[in-house]
Amino acid sequence: MLRDLAVICDVVLLAALLTITLNISKGKSVSISEHAASSRWSYWLFAITLTIFGSIFSLYLVFYLGPQFNLSPLYYAAAIIGWIALVLAAWFAEDTKKPRFKNPHWLSANALGAMMGVMLVCISITSSVNPVTRVLAAIFAAWYFFCLYLIFFREDAKLLNHFMPIQYFNILTFTSLVLAASYFS
Q1: Are the CB atoms for 123 and 133 separated by under 8 Å?
Q2: Residue 104 pLDDT grade (very low, low, confident, very high; cuts 50, 70, 90)
Q3: What does the pLDDT read at residue 79?
Q4: What's the DSSP call for residue 29?
Q5: Boundaries of every domain in the chain
Q6: 3-state class of 96 per DSSP?
Q7: Residue 29 has pLDDT above 80, yes or no
Q8: 115: closest CA among 77, 159, 60, 169?
Q9: pLDDT (tens digit per residue) in 108-148
Q10: pLDDT mean over 39-50
């Protein structure tokens, strides 16, 4: 039941994020949250859907996926910290006028990305997960940490000119991988 609810939450979240970015086009170099912060309705849609459906998905990560594969305590810590970062990122509007390291949204969103990477590392080293999922989890975790490296230390990287598609790719790969692992392992 919780796993099926997680799939529905994933679809609703994706639909909400697509609604925001397709209705308020600011370019592909701008983050999803910057699109959301540009109007009141999109900000509320972003904050409410991310909080409600992201929280339900986080419950799935902690109470279904973790026990299913007997994941390490580090996984649970990363899932809980990731949920806290998700809620903070949802309710702190993106403020591009503030320096990056003084912007609560920027900090919490990148903390969420780091926790997604940590959860994938935990999945990749767990023997109860099938080998294909483990390899994909390791590859995606490496990609997430590479993206965080670019965000923190290489702001001038040309890859960041495509920031919004990278965000969508990261969200889809994480949610798809953990849901597929749950269904097919």
Answers
A1: yes
A2: confident
A3: 97
A4: T
A5: 2-184
A6: coil
A7: no
A8: 77
A9: 999 999 999 999 999 999 999 999 999 999 999 999 999 88
A10: 88
Alpha helices in the chain (DSSP H): 2-23, 32-36, 40-60, 66-69, 73-91, 104-124, 131-153, 163-184
Token digits of residue 2? 């919780």
Q: What is the pLDDT of residues 54-83, one digit of tens each?
A: 999 999 999 999 999 999 999 999 999 999
Q: 82, 103 in Cβ contact below 8 A?
A: no
Q: In this structure, what token pair is assigned to residue 13?
A: 């979240």
Question: What pTM was computed for the model?
Answer: 0.89
CA distances from 57 to 2, 18, 37 (A): 9, 18, 23
C-alpha–C-alpha distance, residues 160 and 165, integer Å: 10
Contact 67, 30 (CB under 8 A): no
CA angle 143, 147, 148 (to 5 degrees): 120
Please give the Cα distance from 108 to 177 (Å, whole number): 22
Contact (CB, 8 A) for 29 and 164:
yes
> Buried (b) or exposed (e) across 83-110, using 16+ Cβ within 10 A?
bebbbbbbbbbbeeeeeeeebebbbbbb
- Phi, psi values for residue 129, rounded to 5°: -95, 145
